[in-house]
Amino acid sequence: MFHWLEKHPFFFAVAVFVTIAFAGLIENLPNFAEASQPTIGTKPYSTLELAGRHVYIKNSCNACHSQLIRPFKSETDRYGHYSLSGEYAYDRPFLWGSKRTGPDLMRVGNYRTTDWHENHMKDPAAIVPGSIMPAYRWMFKNLADIDTAYAEQVTVNKVFNVPYNKPIPMTDGGTATVKLAGSLDGAKADALAEAKMIAADMKDQDVKDMVANGQVPEIVALIAYLNSLK
Amino acid sequence: MENRPLEYDYTIAKLWMFMTIVLGIVGMLIGVILAWELAFPSVNLIAGEGLAEFTNFSRLRPLHTDAVIFGFTVSGIMATWFYVGQRVLKVSMAESKFLMVTAKLQFALYLLAVVAIVGSLLLGITTSKEYAEFEWPIDILIVVIWVLFGIQIFGLIGIRREKSLYISVWYYIATFLGIAMLYLFNNMEVPTALVSGAGAWYHSVSMYAGTNDALVQWWYGHNAVAFGFTVPIVAMIYYFLPKESGQAVYSYKLSLLAFWGLMFVYLWAGGHHLLFSTVPDWMQTMGSVFSVVLILPSWGSAINMLLTMKGEWNQVATNPLIKFMVLASTFYMFSTLEGPIQAIKSVNALAHFTDWIVGHVHDGVLGWVSFMIIAALLHMAPRVYKREIYSKSLMNTQFWIQTLGVVLYFTSMWIAGITQGMMWRAHDEFGNLAYSFIDTVTVLHPYYTIRAVGGTLYFLGMFMWAWNMYKTATAGRRVEESELQSASPMAA
Fold first, then answer.
1. Which end of chain B is less crowded, N or C, counting CB atoms within 10 A of the terminal residue's CB?
2. Could you tell me if residue A173 is left (phi over 0), alpha (psi between -120 and 50 degrees) or otherwise beta?
C-alpha cells in the first residue's frame, strides 16, 4: 500500500491529512461541544478593564507572567484558589502564559493595590529589590485605546452573546450588571468615570492631570484590569 | 531520452538561502539581546529611555521566536525545498514558467510579510497567542504565501520525471499540510472593526474563549514545532546526510514506520502543554501518554540516520558537514527524550513555567534545527554556486564554538529551571512557603549570565557561517557539478 501511495501524490497527501487531522478531532471537539459555562461571579470586562487588557497584551506581559494557578499547595498558598475553567469564560484570548519569569497574576487584584502597581511599573527594582522586570514608563504617557476596547465589547456581545447589560449572578446571591454603552461617546464617558476612581488612588501628578482633562493613560487602564483579576 | 544530466535552476533557492542567513542572524541577535536583558535588566535600555518601549524584553520576545521560527527556519525549509525538490523529482524549475512566476511572487509576498510582522510586533500589535501573534491582515497574507508554497510542491510533483516520491518529499508534503491545518484553525478570529464600526481596523478577537482557546492554541503551538521544527528538518536530513556521506539510507522500512508513526502520534501530544490546567483530565492524560509514545517514531528517524553512517564513521573526523549532521541527529534524539520526560505529569509539575522548558526548546532548535539548516546550506552552496567551500577550517571552528554555545545554554537552563521549580514548591517545617517569589528570581542570575554567554557564542558561529557562505559564493575555487557527484567538495 505504501509503495502505491508513494506513486500517487494526491492520495498520499489525503492519507497524511487524515492521519494528522484525526487527533485534533478527538481531542478538541468534545470540549467545544460543552463550551465552558462561566462560574458564579465571573463578569465580562468593562470598557476600561478591556482597554487595560489590551495594554497587557500589547506589551506581552503574558511572556513572563502566567494567569493559571495549578492545584498544588505551594501555588494555592502563594496565589490563592486554583483556576477553574469557568473563570475564563470571557477571556478572548486566554492569557495563561507558558513561563513564569515573574509571579502568577490570576488573582493579583486580591493582594496588590493601585498604588503598588503604579510604583512598580515606574521602577520595579525600587519596589521589589532584585527584580529583573523592566520599567514601563511609556504607559504613563501613551493613551489607552478606548475605541478598540469598545469595538471588542460590541463584537463579543453581538457575535458570542457575552452578557453585557444583563444581570449576572454573584457569589453572595445578588446580581451585578456590566454596562455596554449604546455609543462610542457613552463608552468613553463610562471609561473616564472609572479612570477617575483609579487616578484618585495614584500619586503621579501628570496622570492625575491627564485624567482630569478627559484623557486615559495606558497605566490607568492597565491597573483597572489588574485590579479586576480576583 | 537525454543522456546529459539535468541542469537544475537555483534562482529561487538562492533567494531563500540569502533570506535564511539574514533572518537567522537577526532572530538570534534578538535572542542574544533578550538573554542579556534577563541577566542584566539595564540592557532593556540599550537604545536609551526614549526607545525603551521598542527594545524592551516584552516587545522583543515575540519578535525573537517568530524570527527564528517563521524567519530562519521557514526560509531554510524553502531554500532546501527549491533545491531538494528539483533533484529528487528529477525536474528543473526552469521547465515551468508558471512555477517560476509563482515562486517569485511567494518570495516577494514573504518579504512584505517580514516587514509587516517586524513593524507590527515592535508597535505591540499582537494577539498574544504564542507563535500566532499576527493580526488578521497578516494572517491572510501568510495563508496566501503558504498556498503558493503548496502550489510549488504539488506543481513540481505534477511535472516530475521520477515517479516514486523520495522520503524527503513525504516530509515536505506533511509540512505543508500540517502547518496549513494548524494555522487556519488557531487563527480563527473576528475583526472587531468590521462588526462594530469602531476601533483599530486591524484588531481582532479570538473565536475561542478561555479553556477552548488554550486547547486550540497548544494543539497549534506544539504542532507548529512538529511541522516547523521536526518534520521539515527530517526531510532535510533524509536527503543531505546520505548525499553528503555517499551512503544509502539504512532502512526503508524504518523510514516508513517512523514517518507514519510520527504523523499519527505527534498531534496527540499537544495536551502536555496544559497539564494541571483547566482542560479535561482525560485530555491531559492523553497528551502525557502520547508524548512518551512519540519517542518511538522520533528515535526511528534519528537511528535510521545514525545507522546510515554505519561503517563510515571515519567521515565524522574528516568532514565537518557530517559532524554537523550527526550532532544534529544526536540532539534530535536528546531533545525528543527530554520532551517526553517533561511531559510526565510529576516532572511537568516541577518543570512547567520554568527555564527548563526554555532550555528544552533551545537544545532542539539550536542543536537540531539550526545545525541541520546550516549543514544543508553548506552542502548546497558548492552545487548552487559551482564553487568549492571557501574554508573547511572555518566550518570546524564554527562547529565547536556553536556546540559549546548549545551546551552552555541547555545546562545552565536545566539548573535554573529545576532550581526555580524546587524553590517555588519548598515549604518550611511549619508548612509555610520557604521562599518569596523574588528569591527564586535573584538566585538565577549566574545561570542567566551563562546562558547569555552560550547564546553569544552560538551567535558568533552564525557570523562564521554567513562569512563562509558569502566567500564561497564569491571567492571559492570554481568547480563543476560533475566533480561534485561523488565527492564532498572541501577546500583544505
1. N
2. left
Alpha carbon distance B99, B408 (integer Å): 44
Cβ of A145 and B425 within 8 Å?
A: no
Reported as a single tens digit per residue, the pLDDT across A20-78 is: 888 888 887 777 776 678 999 999 999 999 999 999 999 999 999 999 999 999 999 99
Contact between B239 and B84 under an 8 Å Cβ cutoff? The reply is yes
**CA gap A210, A146 in Å, rounded:** 15
Is the separation of the CB atoms in B220 and B186 below 8 Å? Answer: yes
A69 in Cβ contact with A104 (< 8 Å) = yes
Q: Which of B199, B206, B278 has its CB closest to that of A147?
A: B199
Query: A88 to chain B: which residues are within 8 Å by CB?
Result: 209-211, 213-214, 278
Longest dimension (CA), chain B: 85
From chain A, the residues in CB contact with B438 under 8 A are 128-131
**Min Cα–Cα distance to chain B from A174, Å:** 25
Q: Quick one: A122 exposed, middle or buried, by C-beta within 10 A (0-12, 13-18, 19+)?
A: middle
Element (H, E) at A175: strand A175-177
Contacts of A35 in chain B (CB under 8 A): 209, 212
Residues 6 or more apart whose CB falls under 8 angstroms from that of B58 comprise A59, A60, A61, A63, A64, A134
Lookup: cell for B294: 512519540
Helices (H), B204-275: 210-224, 231-245, 252-266
pLDDT digit string (tens) for B1-40? 445 667 899 999 999 999 999 999 999 999 999 999 999 9
Q: Indicate the burial class of B360 (C-beta count within 10 angstroms; 0-12, 13-18, 19 or more).
A: buried
Q: CB distance A138–B53 less than 8 Å?
A: yes
CA distance B274 to chain A (A): 9
Quote the minimal CA–CA distance from B34 to chain A in Å. Answer: 12
B190 Cβ under 8 Å from any chain A Cβ: yes
CA distance A172 to chain B (A): 24
Residue in A2, A31, A128 nearest the CB of B279: A31
Q: Detail the DSSP E strand segments found in B366-484.
A: none
- Where along chain A do its domains lie? 2-33, 47-228
A183 in contact with B at a CB cutoff of 8 Å? no
Residues of chain B with pLDDT under 70: 1-5, 481-492
Using the structure block, give the residue that is written with the C-alpha cell 503621579.
A204
CB-CB neighbors (< 8 A) of B53 in chain A: 138
Query: How far are the Cα atoms of B53, B148, B285, B352, B417 from residue B420, in angstroms, in the given order?
Result: 28, 45, 25, 10, 5
The C-alpha atoms of residue B6 and residue A110 are separated, in whole angstroms, by 71
End-to-end C-alpha distance for chain A, whole angstroms: 57
Residue B314 CB neighbour total at 10 angstroms: 10
pLDDT of residue A26: 84
**Angle, CA of B484, B490 and B492, to the nearest 5°:** 145
CATH assignment of A47-228? 1.10.760.10
Across the interface, do B263 and A19 touch by the CB < 8 Å criterion? yes
Label the pairing between strands B204-206 and A175-177.
Answer: unpaired
Cell numbers placing A198: 483609579
What's the predicted TM-score (pTM) here?
0.94
Q: Could you tell me the domains of chain B?
A: 11-483 (1.20.210.10)
A2 band by pLDDT with thresholds 50, 70 and 90: confident
**Burial class for B225, CB neighbours closer than 10 Å (0-12, 13-18, 19+):** buried
Q: Kindly give the residue spans of alpha helices, DSSP state H, lying in A166-212.
A: 184-200, 205-212
